[in-house]
Amino acid sequence: MPTTSTTTHVTLTLTDLTRMLRESAGEEEGVDLDGDVIDTPFMDLGYDSLALLQVIGQIQREYGIEIPDDAVVDAETPGALLALVNAGQAGQADAA
Fold first, then answer.
1. In this protein, which residues make up the domain named Carrier (predicted)?
2. Where do the H-state alpha helices sit in the chain?
3. Tens-place pLDDT, residues 45-68
């Protein structure tokens, strides 16, 4: 009898992402991460590529997924990063 495996898919939310941004690199004075930041470029929020790499590492550890470095370069806003991560999780769940 074949065995089936189930994979749990947990969606990364904006709340999760802003928590990780604060934990990894803090919050720039004058920037309200609790505001409408989904389409605001990370650079405008005060986060450089090093800060984003730290956040990506944390996402990979917490969610157990792999995110290609070249894909991260194109994720210039929190919304784009959420879409990338959540699409990657769905793809990995489908492959399991």
1. 12-89
2. 14-25, 42-45, 49-63, 69-73, 78-95
3. 988 888 888 999 999 998 888 888
